[in-house]
Amino acid sequence: MLMGEFTHAIDTKGRLFMPAKLRESLGGSFIISKGLDGCLFVYAKDEWHKLELKLNALPMTNKNARNFSRFFFSGAAEVECDKQGRVLLPANLREFAGLDKNAVIVGVGSRAEVWDAERWQQYNEENAEDADAVAAQLADMDIGI
User: Fold this and answer.
1) What's the mean per-residue pLDDT of the chain?
2) Residue 45 and residue 29: Cα distance in Å, rounded?
3) Which of 23, 29, 45, 79 is most exposed by smallest CB count within 10 Å?
């Protein structure tokens, strides 16, 4: 399980340190892709494969399914950490997520997310008040918190 929040700088070559706790769960190489809400999604290969099977099962005749598959797969890259625990974030993914200097890496259960630090702070400020309402909705879906 991936969890926790970690802040690290992105160096001038576009490398980001991945915390050891997350590297243990992600494995030697893993997948980084465009995510939702303006962040990057990070998946261990086995989790990526599960998602890949689900997306490939969507009907090709459904325009939304085609569009999302294009968005998700075209922005994906397999990466691995160097000996210092850094991963090179591809330029297109850094640009997509607005990553320049400081990033926040967040463990979110089956995946991690990489956020621009300012964007993460803004996201939290905008969504903090919604937590109670979301918890109530999840309770209605029989997911107790």
Assistant:
1) 91
2) 8
3) 29
Rounded Cα distance, 14 and 39, in Å: 16
Q: Please, which residues have CB within 8 angstroms of residue 20's CB and are 6 or more apart in sequence?
A: 85
Closest CA to 112 of 83, 87, 136, 132: 87
Tokens of 15: 């490398």
pLDDT for 4-28, tens place per residue? Answer: 999 999 999 999 999 999 999 999 8
Helix (H) or strand (E) holding 110: none
Nearest of 7, 19, 6, 137 to residue 81 by alpha carbon: 19
Mean pLDDT, residues 24-40 taken together? 94
Give Cα 115 to chain centroid, integer Å. Answer: 8
Query: Do 28 and 83 form a contact (C-beta atoms < 8 A)?
Result: no
CA dist 71 and 137 (Å) reads 28
